[in-house]
Amino acid sequence: MTAKTKAILVLFFAAEIVNATKVAVMQRRIDDLEGQRIIYAARSANWQDRAIQDEEVIDQLQTAADENALPDGLTKEYAGEFLCTAYCTEEYPHICGTGDGITASGRPIQADVTVAADQTLLPYGTVLYIEGVGIRVVQDKGAGVQGYHLDVAVDTHENALAWSGYGEHRVWIIKGE
Question: pTM here?
Fold first, then answer.
């Protein structure tokens, strides 16, 4: 075997080793991304399940609050009169927010469930009955939401702009005994 042939073989094998290393690195990255996809798919499924459960509970509370007949163990405490505005749950960055679908509390944003409030008055997880609007859960905050101001999540940007609930509303906190 000539020196030239040996040099070519050495370069060939070196290229194969580099290529095999690149393939292994790429395969590890693919495996990592597939693992992350599975994790995020499971989280999304859990959030969707929880959202359905939340909506069912809120529907039950809504009916009871409208009829002034809360289930045993629940009471209403008057919180005051709040200015209510609306923002949308659309998932793209725009004037209503970052559009990532996640509230400041870490929960997924839900139209007709989520409300943003001043955390010094109403902490995350507070269940509210807003007269003329319905049952909502404090899950978000906003720079413009301070004091006696609530920002109610609705489905679309168009519906947020045209929301009929803009204005002052009496608000009650629903508490468990």
Answer: 0.62
